[in-house]
Amino acid sequence: MRDVTRIVVFAAILAVLGIPGAISVFGGAVPITAQTLGVMLAGAVLGAWRGASAIVIFLILTLAGLPLLSGGRGGAGVFAGPSAGFLIGWIFGAFVVGAIARFGNRPPTWWRTAVGGVVGGMLVVYAIGIPVQALVTHNSLGKTALSSAVFLPGDLVKVVITAIITMTLWRAYPRAFGTPTRLTRRPPAEVSPDSVAS
Q1: pTM, two decimal places
Q2: Which long-range contacts (C-beta less than 8 Å, at least 24 apart) are formed by 114-119?
Q3: How far apart, in whole angstroms, are the C-alpha atoms of residue 23 and residue 16?
């Protein structure tokens, strides 16, 4: 039940990150939003499967018509537009972020979280989103990839923010991450009867 609550909470966080709206740069077909930050955080904090599940729930609600995407967008139409590949890429991106940041169900570290954000939150999302955008807009793959380069600076900033928030949350409230099998803190040393007697 606790896992379900955490998944739903992150789906809600993703919706909240859409409130500021979207920024269209140079008239691009796919806007810049803060919601990719939520994708990275979902994977880093919840882990691979739970992080991806939070994105799936969010997208199902969006598909149902709720205006949860930046700019108040929602409904089936957004899954037929230029952003469709990026939205689907969020699922796989969150999974990869979680798989790297929480590798072996370990607690997160700075470097694994950052690598996870770059590989999952950026490369995986781009690898799915750019070809779909090219297909929908009838542009060449190269031209679409070049136009998507505008996302790079902002996404790198989001990777840094994800690492900072993740590690701060881990230190302040590790229970938010579930129950990792390997803890950073060493278990207390056992006290032998001889040392007590002495």
Answers
A1: 0.84
A2: 114/159, 114/160, 114/162, 114/163, 116/40, 116/43, 116/44, 117/40, 117/44, 117/158, 117/159, 117/162, 117/163, 118/156, 118/159
A3: 16
Q: Look at residue 177 and tell me whether its pLDDT is greater than 70.
A: yes
Cβ(84)–Cβ(136) below 8 Å: yes
Q: What is the DSSP letter of 107?
A: P
How many CB atoms are located within 10 Å of the residue 162 CB? Answer: 28
Query: What pLDDT is attached to residue 72?
Result: 87
Q: What domains appear along the chain, each with residue ranges and CATH number?
A: 2-179 (1.10.1760.20)
pLDDT for residue 54: 97
Mean of the pLDDT values across residues 28-33? 61
DSSP percent split of the chain into helix, strand, coil, nearest 5: 70, 0, 30
- C-alpha to C-alpha distances, 57 to 7, 63, 115, nearest whole angstrom: 8, 10, 25
Q: What is the pLDDT of residue 24?
A: 53
